[in-house]
Amino acid sequence: MSSELPTIIKRAIEGVFNENPNWTLLEFLNYRAEASDFTYDKASEHKLYREALKILSKDHDKARKRLLKFENEKSSVVVKVFWLEVEKRIYEKQISIVRADGILNILKATNKSQQLVMNIQHQYLSGLYSNVQDDVNNETNPDDELDDEHADDEHADESVTDDDPEDNMMDID
Questions:
Q1: How many domains are contained in the chain?
Q2: Quick check: is 62 in a domain?
Q3: Compositionally biased, Acidic residues: which spans (predicted)?
Q4: What is the DSSP string of 54-71?
Q5: Handedness of CA 45, 50, 51, 55 (dihedral sign)
Q6: Angstrom distance (rounded) from CA 64 to CA 56
Q7: 67 is in which domain, residue-wise?
Q8: Angstrom distance (rounded) from CA 47 to CA 39
Q9: What is the pLDDT of residues 98-141, one digit of tens each?
Q10: How far from each other are the two terminal CA atoms of the chain, in whole angstroms?
């Protein structure tokens, strides 16, 4: 096999045609679907199959026969089902990505909401703290308050007048 062949075709020939007695398009596609460089593109994968068969047809009659059957084989039900399965896998991956993206957006929104709640709580608690500080700063000395209370009692005694002595006398009858 020539070293000038593209690596992808070399691997396909070694993996499918040298190892497998059935050189069908479906066998080739199943092999390629497991390869890390699978293109998920029908036209590209069919072209690889044809190119590999052309290379092999120089030495193998089987490859020439498969080339003649290629047009019918690519439109066969089994090949169509293969590509439907590939499409299904693509959609499943896309759905997984969309779900993951949706979950990420939910988490981001939740984090934003949580941050907003925390900011509001912080502002509320800061406001409470500053109100308590204001109250503490505005409070007077407790001893001064006691003196003020006693001062009021002393003044209360002074506010009672003895203008009419009879009002202060008790009636004894």
A1: 1
A2: yes
A3: 141-173
A4: HHHHTT-HHHHHHHHHHH
A5: positive
A6: 8
A7: 7-75
A8: 11
A9: 877 778 778 777 777 777 777 787 777 777 666 666 666 666 55
A10: 145
- Report if residue 147 sits inside a domain: no
The DSSP code for 76 is S
Which position has the token pair 């109250």? 135
- Tally DSSP H helices, then E strands, for the chain: 7, 0
Predicted TM-score (pTM) above 0.85: no
Rg of the chain, C-alpha, whole Å: 47
97 in a domain, yes or no?
A: no
50 vs 32: CA distance, rounded Å: 13
Q: What is the dihedral of CA 87, 92, 96, 102, to 10 degrees?
A: 80
C-beta neighbour count of 23 within 10 angstroms = 20
